[in-house]
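So, could you explain the following?
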Amino acid sequence: MNQSQNESIRLLRDVDAYVIPAGDEVKLLAGNLVKITQSLGGNYTVLINGNLVQIREENADALGFKISKKENKKKHEGTFEQQIWDQLKTCYDPEIPVNIVELGLIYDLQIEKNNDVNVKMTLTAPGCGMGPVLTEEVNRKISGLNDSNNVKVELVWEPQWNRDMMSEEAQLELGML
């Protein structure tokens, strides 16, 4: 099994991935060499031929890692709102080693009486093509909660994100304090 984040890894099978920051879906072929640059929230950011791409957690076996079998709609701790925030904290910008909550990308979270969930979020850069990839991940992770009903994730651009929206923890992690 492949373990090191600093070594080159040969892909064990063809795998779908997303080009960063364009967000375009590509197929990486078995046998290609990649280097993991980030492994957070279950996803892998890898460098291949000078390009960054994201490989999602369900394709970890292409890198030689075991795919963690998650019980569908497994039991989570805390209030429903806390469970949602916990799930959001497992979503990471593929280029920045800080979760989207600490980055300040979540602008609004509304939970209706029937447990419909509405999330308004932004990206660090308006031109980033990873928006659909990140919003789909947020939707998928919240939808995986027992109590969730319909989940809607909306990308918004006002107010425009800036570094002051990051938590102190995120700023420390990124060496900005």
Q: What stands out?
A: Strands lie at 8-10, 15-20, 25-28, 33-40, 43-48, 51-55, 106-111, 117-121, 151-155. Residues 131-143 form the longest helix (13 residues). The longest strand covers residues 33-40. The chain has a mean pLDDT of 91.
